[in-house]
Amino acid sequence: MKKTNMALQTTKRGYPALWEEGGGYSNTGYATIIAGPNGEPLFPVYINRRGRLCCGLHALFLVQPGYLVVEADHHRRDFVIDVYRIRAIHEEEGRLVADVDRVNRFSRGEWEVDLQPELEEPVRAAKEKATCYHCKRPVYVDWEHEEAR
């Protein structure tokens, strides 16, 4: 199934955002990773350090058209991975929604098309997070530019 839109979160100031979330259990796991237009890690606007962190919401990122979203699910390391690019952001029924295009999909052991080099790192991060037992931390974050904010 090809996704055509994705529900977004809204920051207190009304900016569109998405959570890096997920983690692994004994034999299963899932992850959502947010990346820049060229697959680069981003610096989050918020890092969750309270409440139930295990396989939950870990880092909130502002998003805009062109950004990438990698969703990974696995059962005993048999992965299904979808890579989406945000095409547009608009309001629908009082909520922000992103129109997305699926860039690539991994299932049954292979990619639909060869994985683009700029997607290798965010996909690796999604697999790492989806297999990290009871993950409680963000995985794909640009820590080097933390001082610039």
What would your notes on this structure say?
The protein is mainly beta. The chain has one domain (5-140): Immunoglobulin-like, CATH 2.60.40. The protein contains one helix and ten strands. It has one helix spanning 120-131, and strands spanning 5-7, 9-10, 16-24, 28-35, 46-47, 57-62, 68-75, 78-92, 95-107, 110-111. Strands 1, 2, 3, 4, 5, 6, 7, 8, 9 and 10 form a ten-stranded antiparallel sheet that branches. A hairpin with a 5-residue loop joins β2 (9-10) and β3. The longest helix is centred in the last third of the chain and has 12 residues, at 120-131. It is globular and about 40 Å long. The model has no long low-confidence stretch (mean pLDDT 93).
Please sum up the structure shown.
The protein has 149 residues and is mainly β.
Helix fraction by DSSP (H/I, runs of at least 4): under 10%
User: What's the number of domains?
Assistant: 1
Strand content: over 45%
Instruction: Give the name of the CATH architecture.
Output: Sandwich
Reported for the largest beta sheet, the result is: 10 strands, antiparallel
Keywords summarizing the entry:
149 residues, mainly beta, Immunoglobulin-like, ten-stranded antiparallel beta sheet, 10 strands
List strands and helices in order, with pairings:
Elements: E1 5-7, E2 9-10, E3 16-24, E4 28-35, E5 46-47, E6 57-62, E7 68-75, E8 78-92, E9 95-107, E10 110-111, H1 120-131
Antiparallel strand pairs: 1-9, 2-3, 3-4, 3-6, 4-7, 5-6, 7-8, 8-9, 9-10
